Fold this protein.
Amino acid sequence: MTLKGTKFQLKVWKYLKTIPKGKVKTYKQVAMGIKSPKSARAVANACAKNPYAPKIPCHRVIRSDGSLGGYSGRGGIQQKLKLLRSEKVAI
């Protein structure tokens, strides 16, 4: 599958694919993981623009305070919750 997005979005989406099923990371942790520690908000925007959900698992990224944040896939935040629960994430 050839992904279409900005260079930054592609970097974020590639990183998201490394988050194991059943695990979550914060937007800040993803930003640090792509060596761009001050870009948590940009990471959130890249997740919001992800047209490949849930194949590229942006549902595994949550806010630092533990709340869900948003979800760009069909079904919105309810679907994000459902996906996380199906992966046995305690949320």
